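Input record (one chain):
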Amino acid sequence: MRMDCLCFGDLTPLSPISVNREGGMPAPHTHGSPSPFTERGLGGEVEKARENEVSMPKVGAEPCTLRELGGEANKAQPTQQMNLGRMLISILIAYFLIALGIAQSDDYTLDTGDVLTVTVLRHEQFSGEFTVPPSGRVVFPGVGELPVRGLTLRQLSETLREQLSKRLRNPEVFVSLKQARPLQVFVEGQVNRPGAYPIQLGWRVAEAIAAAEGLKILPERTVAMLIRGEQTMPIDLPALLHRGDQRTNYLLQPGDLLSVQQKPAIRVAIVGEVTKPGNYDLDAGMRAMQAIAQAEGVTEFAALKRAFIDRQGVIIPFDLYRATVQGDTSESANPALQDGDVIVIPQNLQRYAIVGQVARAGYYPIPEGKPFLLSDAIAQAGGMTSRALTSTITVLRMEGDTLQKLRVPYQQFLKRSNLAGNPPIREGDVIYLAEANRIELTQILTAITILNIADRLGWVR
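The corresponding structure, as predicted from the sequence alone:
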């Protein structure tokens, strides 16, 4: 049903219909205020009365009974009686419809999806049709943007009249509801089919997302909120969709707006000793450790203490060892990233050599991030052979310009977990596991072998 509200300055309640005792057309009693039933409003009924020479009643005439009205009507000609009856019926219907419209307009409050017709008499440039958007704010010509959600038609009429009074003299504003809003919810942003959806009984956030055919991006990349009038409620989509957490799965109401937006993102490159080097789109504000986790961590050859960020030619060093081992979250150990950063994890150049009775003799990096012991070095080389002498293991170590030969009682570590038999390995160490019954190192390592190892480990400068 069309609902109207007409504002002529001060709007007064409609008065009961009264009838002139002298005969004629019924007229509304005004009680000293202008009547909404003007000649224009009667839709031509006055002209019909004039054609049939039926006089208009005087305003404020005393009411009469239907019996008296019938008696007076009998004195008129038959044609006049018929016209008078039609006029009376028309006026009663019009009175009823306008009163009903005003009553309903007092109860109906505007919200998203309502279509309004605004008429400013004699000023068409300020008139028009307007749809209430999800924001609840409508831009009216000559007035500007006004919040209309929650207003009745009468309140909106008064507001427009007050605003237009700054430009017009005694503006007459007519506001009607051309089309009432449907019972819908709105879904926008990173969904496959954004739009308006008829709300179903018991619908919650998850059902609205399903109606919009799901998300276009991962829930972790979203910022979601439910907007209800002036109220905004955050939604944790990862918790809702991945873990079934129902705390933010709000029950929906008609006119709700579900907004699913993508988090602000940055793109960084990660190169060097990581498991999966490449370009990564990350949430704005992420730090280096989180980015490296996206690349599935560092390799065993990573130089954690020499990592750096290349930021448009500016080198920013950071200590991944402190971040990973010591849990340091300071900027120097775990800096925040910016769009276009390049994270570089260099290769660890610290090496040791292991020879003799091991499965894979050779040169190996000393991993950073944790203490690296003799047992770790043997395990990295594939373990000892069955002919290895475990009672004593020899470690050659450069101390300044002096080559020292350390004899480690490895058997004590194997049998009694004595840590003295499992010392840390340093950069440049040479570990030798002798064969049983051949203890002397010189019998295995010739002078040429020693010189080769020394050159590879940087002993020779």
